[in-house]
Amino acid sequence: GCQGKGEPTLSGTGLVSGCQGKGEPTLSGTGLVSGCQGKGEPTLSGTGLVSGCQGKGEPTLSGTGLVSGCQGKGEPTLSGTGRVSGCQGKGEPTLSGTGRVSGCQGK
User: Fold this and answer.
1) How far, in Å, CA of 79 to CA of 46, rounded?
2) How far apart are the first and last CA of the chain?
3) What residue ranges do the domains of the chain occupy?
4) Strand 73-78's sheet: what is its strand order?
5) Averaged over 27-54, what is the pLDDT?
6) pLDDT at 87
């Protein structure tokens, strides 16, 4: 997700390679990667890839409640509402059954 592409984690280290040319530690227990454009990005569960740098709506990461790719950063869903916080400063409805977020930069 850094510079528009997924980056592999360095096996066994918990570090993400290729983010601004340096490994970045994951935030323990959160599944977020620190230091990518100065903000945490959700990892795609089971893949070791970082999603979401490109400023567009991205599928939610199954089982995490995080939406990747909104203005280049992961955004938490508002618990129990099905709405996504932090997209242009307002909650946006998810498109039911698609795993995509509507209304972010008009799409």
Assistant:
1) 23
2) 19
3) 9-50, 60-101
4) 60-61, 66-70, 73-78, 83-87, 90-95, 100-101
5) 42
6) 43
Contacts of 76 (CB under 8 A, 6+ apart): 65, 66, 67, 84, 85, 86
Amino acid letter, 87: C
Percent of the chain with pLDDT over 70: 0
Is there a contact between 66 and 78 (Cβ–Cβ < 8 Å)?
A: no
Spatial separation of the C-alpha atoms in residues 57 and 94, rounded to whole Å = 10
Strand 22-27 and strand 49-50: the pairing is unpaired
Confidence of residue 80 (pLDDT cuts 50, 70, 90): very low
